[in-house]
Amino acid sequence: MTQLVDVTNMCRWIDHHGVEKLIAGILGYIEEDFARWEKFDKIPRVASHTPIGVIELMPTSDSIEYGFKYVNGHPSNPARGFQTVTAFGVLADVDNGYPTFEAEMTLLTALRTAATSAMAAKVLARKDAQVMAMIGAGSQSEFQALGFRAALGIERVRIFDIDPNAMEKFRRNIEPLGIEVYLADSVDDAVEGADIITTCTADKAQNTILDYSLVRPGVHINGVGGDCPGKTELDPRILDDATVFVEFPPQTRIEGEIQNKPEDFEVVELWKVIAGQREGRTSDEEITLFDSVGFAIEDFSALRYLRDSTAGTDFQTFIDLVAEPDDPKDLFSLTSRVLSPL
Amino acid sequence: MTQLVDVTNMCRWIDHHGVEKLIAGILGYIEEDFARWEKFDKIPRVASHTPIGVIELMPTSDSIEYGFKYVNGHPSNPARGFQTVTAFGVLADVDNGYPTFEAEMTLLTALRTAATSAMAAKVLARKDAQVMAMIGAGSQSEFQALGFRAALGIERVRIFDIDPNAMEKFRRNIEPLGIEVYLADSVDDAVEGADIITTCTADKAQNTILDYSLVRPGVHINGVGGDCPGKTELDPRILDDATVFVEFPPQTRIEGEIQNKPEDFEVVELWKVIAGQREGRTSDEEITLFDSVGFAIEDFSALRYLRDSTAGTDFQTFIDLVAEPDDPKDLFSLTSRVLSPL
Predict the structure, then answer these.
(1) Domain CATH for A245
(2) Which residues on adjacent β-strands are paired with residue A60?
């Protein structure tokens, strides 16, 4: 039988442990998997685009376990009462190909995206960073804020969103947890004095959410929302001044901020920094950019963490997904309790 | 909520309707979808190979619905007590990206593979075909036999397998349903007088299950088992004498019998025959070959049929897979019933 963590149990699991502890736990698993990056089967995600959104499959394997995530991205969903992003995922045993674990991943993706951003910022932001600007107060925003507190101790967030209700929602969720929240009246206002700038908007268009003039030396930019062909957030000139770190270059060149740059635009693979093969930030003046699009290995790590953390608890139930006749060559036996030929 | 047909309910559904009726029903849906082939998003399946087997994702979309199947293929599984192939699949709403339906597909794949083979044989086998030779008595064999009776009225099957127990299992399952079964002592013996030859073996190697000398004019070959790089069943000379029909050429050239032929080896796309754009069999002497590998649209059709057939019945249950906060921008609200910062 395949183990299952459904939405109800995912909420209970997060409730039980708290968002920050889980982001920290997932971060550890992602670091572990990024450090053994070369052991993984890697392909760009498999996307089915329509004018209204995208549905994607994101598979990977370390040759012991296989995992994939189903995820959609529909920017117009919230206005119609739906989530922009929903997701679920599966782990399977490479040895016999059986699915072993299925889980909701709408919430888990929010946790793993924050964990990945925080992991990157640990090696790319200045050690004395204290203030984060957040552009975009959507579903991902609270998770980002808590991820940066868990991993870097960030206690002050300056947030801007074109939707004032979304900003209020962010404050309502985050202030009670002891993070100082400033509601900015513009992007310019939000980035004032920020050491880290996180852009996380959902519009599926080539926007300039963050203007070139707003990026000062020493800042770390955590670019989360530019993650789809035709969907970017940064003034392309920012990329010329920054050292750009990416997950899987063949995917990021299609989906990330660097889609606006030539094929040979220089990037650093983040896994090499995690594995100790490359330096992260090299000076207090350097501008660093994590051009995050989300990669299958992060989902694999998050699923592994969830599975391990919920093993043997009532956060897991079962889903009857694998037909198992007594004689493996006699699948037909499962159909023949009552046989009614035409 | 996402609707679910799990293994138990799949068995009940097949029990209730009978294998032949369901194969006929799925066949109708596949014909419908093959006739509108050009409306679909099509890519070769996304495969993760290891020395021991393969795990694949097979997505497609008609721009209204999206579907994918997870499926493995592990030839050494039966000897270890596991199914060679297990599968499950999902349908989703392209408009908002939400998964709407999930189902076990180990049994459903067996039904749809038989339905596809039977659909092809309806336009490719001689109208007076009466006898089928089956090479391979594994999980798929009974479904093939019943599919050919449902669609073509085939009542006589000559079977051969290197495993005598598998042949006995086939006879035990099929004879009570009124099909005449002859257990052959060799491939040569099995194909004697056969109008249709179905090859369906699981070994992951370039084998010659069917020798050139055994193929006589007028025969239709239903080549099911050659479906993976490095896994073929037919003497390549057979392909030179036959008219070769395929599902999706970019996938079949990687996985099918034609992988042993040059890139420009001439094939006919089966959908064109179903859509009435091309002839199927053109004479009683022609040798026709359906080089079947299994394509995503067939799974999409089978999932649609299953969903429609089980709608509003207790063959469907629900799986709690989509997180839905009251405010779609407030995913975080689902985590904050009890908040425990670190």
Answers:
(1) 3.40.50.720
(2) A67
pLDDT digits (tens, 9 = 90+) for B268-302: 999 999 999 999 999 999 999 999 999 999 999 99
pLDDT score recorded for residue B342: 38
Active site residue A189: no
CATH of the domain at A319: 3.30.1780.10
Q: CB distance from A48 to chain B under 8 Å?
A: yes
**Confidence at A87, pLDDT banded by 50, 70, 90:** very high
Task: Give the number of domains in chain B.
Answer: 2
Contacts of B11 in chain A (CB under 8 A): 323, 334-335, 337
Q: Which residues of chain B have pLDDT under 70?
A: 204, 336-342
pLDDT in tens, A195-215: 999 999 877 677 788 999 999
Range(s) of the domain holding residue A228: 126-294
pLDDT value at residue B204 = 64
* Strands B180-183 vs B242-246: parallel, antiparallel or unpaired: unpaired
Contacts of B107 in chain A (CB under 8 A): 323, 331, 334-335
Tell me, yes or no, whether B245 and B309 share the same domain: no
Same domain, B34 and B161: no
Q: Which residues of B are catalytic?
A: 227
Share the mean pLDDT of chain A: 94
